[in-house]
Structure formats: C-alpha cells, structure tokens
Amino acid sequence: MKQLYGVIGNPIGHSMSPDIHNAALKDLGLDGHYHAFQVENDNLKDAVKGIKALGMIGINVTVPHKVAIMEHLDHIDESAKVLGAVNTVRTEGDMLVGYNTDGEGFVKSLRKILDKPVQDLSILMIGAGGAARAIFTTIVRENPKRFDICNRTLEKAEQLIQSSPSFQNKQVLTIKEAEENLERYDVIIHTTSIGMYPDIDAVPISLQRAANRAIVCDIVYNPIRTALLKQAEQKGLRTLDGVGMFVEQAALSFQLWTGQEPDIDKMRAIVEAKLGGKEC
Ligand code: NAP
User: Fold this and answer.
1) Which terminus of the chain has fewer CB atoms gathered within 10 Å of its CB, N or C?
2) Chain-wide mean pLDDT for the chain?
3) pTM given for the model
4) Shared domain check, 216 and 263
5) Residue 261 forms part of a structural domain
6) How many A from CA of 21 to the centre of ligand 1?
7) Is 91 found in the same domain as 148?
8) pLDDT at 276 over 80
C-alpha cells in the first residue's frame, strides 16, 4: 500500500517540500506520496488526529504550527524538547513523536564549507526567532570559541542567549555594535526574514568590516542569492545559502521516516530549478 507523508502549515502553497520528498521517494523506489496540507490554527488538533487515523508515516510541520503542535503529540524527542519546537512528526506504533531537524540541518550544511572545527569558530548570528533558536542551541553543544547574537528586539536575543546557561562565551549586541565589531567573526549567520521575496534588496547588516576569512550564511532561500550574499561575494567572502539548510533538514526528516538517505544534490537541484535563480 502506498505510504502517505506530508507537511502542514499555513500558508503552504509555495512549499517545495512535496517536490523534493516525492522525488526522493521515487528515486529510492519507495511506494509513497508526500502532500502539502493547509491547516488553520483551529483545525490543528484534528489534523494531528488525522495523522493517526489515516495511518500516515509522518509529517513535517511549518509556520505557524511548530510550537502549537507539541501539546497534541504523545512524545517529544530531546531534539525538539531543547528547541521548544517540532518540525517533524513520526508515527511510532500508536504514538506520534515530535522531532526537530532544523538545527542539525543547518550545521550539516555549514560543515560542508568549514575548514576548521566548530570549537575554533567565533560566530555572530543576526536574529533570535525560531530558526535562530534551533541553530544557536545546536551549535553551542559543540562549544564554539564565541557565539554572539544581535537582533532588532534585544530582549529576544537576551532570552535566547540565556537559554544555554552552561555556554559562557557569548554576548548580545545591537545591530550597530555588531557592524562595528564584525572583524571578530569567522562565521556570520543571518536568520531573520530580511531580504526575502518580495523585499529582495533589503540587507540586515553592512558587511563593510567583515574579515576576509569570514563565511557569510543566509538561511533565507527565496531568492537563493540574497542581497546579503551578493554583498559578501562583492567583498570576496565565502557564502552559504539557505537551500543547504532546507534540503539537509528535509533529508534528516526523510531518514527518520524511511531509514534511507536521499540524494542531497538531487534535492538541491530541484529547489534551484524551481526557484530558477528567481523569486516566487
Ligand atoms: P521568526 O521566528 O518569526 O523570527 C523572525 C526573526 O526575524 C526575529 O529575529 C525578528 O526580529 C526578525 N525580523 C523580522 N522582520 C524584521 C525586520 N523587518 N527587521 C529586523 N528584524 C526582523 O521566523 P523564523 O521561523 O525564525 O524564520 C526566519 C527566516 O528564516 C524566514 O525567512 C524563514 O523563511 C527562514 N528559514 C529558513 C529555513 C531553511 O531551511 N533555510 C528554515 C527555517 C526558517 P524581532 O525579534 O525583533 O521581531
């Protein structure tokens, strides 16, 4: 019988998850289908019941349900508990278990271009929302040399940085303070929605003072080459776009459901072809 997978969110119309998961299922010869479901907040509880009732293998969860879904699940894996959000649900016997693959997905994509261990990195992150929490929490487990956060709302950055009390080498900065001290950092990670379509000329920070060794990462992937990444390229800096995180977190979800490893390069090619270097 064909196995059913999916993603729930609102809005969900532009999701590229069905494209990459259906391609991976086909590629690996698995008899399954992955569908995007638009779910209103008021229907979330019933939608979760539907996962069990329909015998689905699992789902992805996206905005705005990543936190709200937790109370409707039977068990939360440590990966999601520490982040306070779920992006993947797997049916395990008669239980629905919540996981989070966002932070690990980002770190896997970052590792591909790093030339030194995380322990030797001074990192600046711009933003303190859900994706930032996943990235911060995952990276500080590896004890980087330093991890600072700047954000429009300083209280949110403060809350996030205090959420890992055992990690000491950290500081909250205003965007201006971060700009003035940018030469400190080996890796600059942008996690806000600034620069996302349709506001494609917006940049969250000036890279004028970035060190030549810096790697500039943007988790926004629509457009793939954001204005921030273009600014980094003009300075001759190495860059990491948001497609890497998107396909790596998807691949980790796919592995949780099927036990098989999808072809990351093919997933990436599908996203690139769909965005076509343009915005949608
Ligand atoms: P979120 O929880 O709503 O957090 C939004 C963040 O952006 C906050 O730090 C917020 O600052 C900041 N922000 C929003 N508008 C701003 C503005 N006009 N000026 C300055 N700061 C602004 O969102 P999220 O779920 O973390 O997602 C953030 C972005 O990451 C989105 O573009 C999303 O598409 C992308 N993302 C990509 C992936 C991937 O796989 N590549 C995965 C997840 C998310 P305040 O605290 O001041 O409000």
Assistant:
1) N
2) 96
3) 0.95
4) no
5) yes
6) 24
7) no
8) no
Amino acid at 245: M
Contacts of 66 (CB under 8 A, 6+ apart): 85, 86, 87, 130
Task: Give the distance (Å) from ligand 1 centre to CA of residue 92.
Answer: 32
* Distance from C-alpha of 97 to C-alpha of 72, rounded to nearest angstrom: 10
Residue 279, in any domain of the structure: no
Q: CATH number of the domain that 133 lies in?
A: 3.40.50.720
Residue 280 lies in a domain: no
pLDDT on residue 277: 52
Distance (Å, whole) CA 61 – CA 86: 7
pLDDT band with cut points at 50, 70 and 90 for residue 275: confident
- Structural domain total, the chain: 2
Same domain assignment for residues 181 and 232: yes
Are the CB atoms for 204 and 194 separated by under 8 Å? yes
Residue 203: domain span: 104-240
Is the distance from the beta carbon of residue 250 to the nearest atom of ligand 1 less than 6 Å?
A: no
pLDDT digits (tens, 9 = 90+) for 239-260: 999 999 999 999 999 999 999 9
What single DSSP character describes residue 41? G
pLDDT score of 181 more than 60: yes
Residue 219 and residue 245 in contact, taking contact as beta carbons nearer than 8 Å: yes
What is the DSSP code (8-state) at residue 237? -
Candidate from 152, 221, 268 with most ligand 1 atoms within 8 A of CB, to mutate: 152
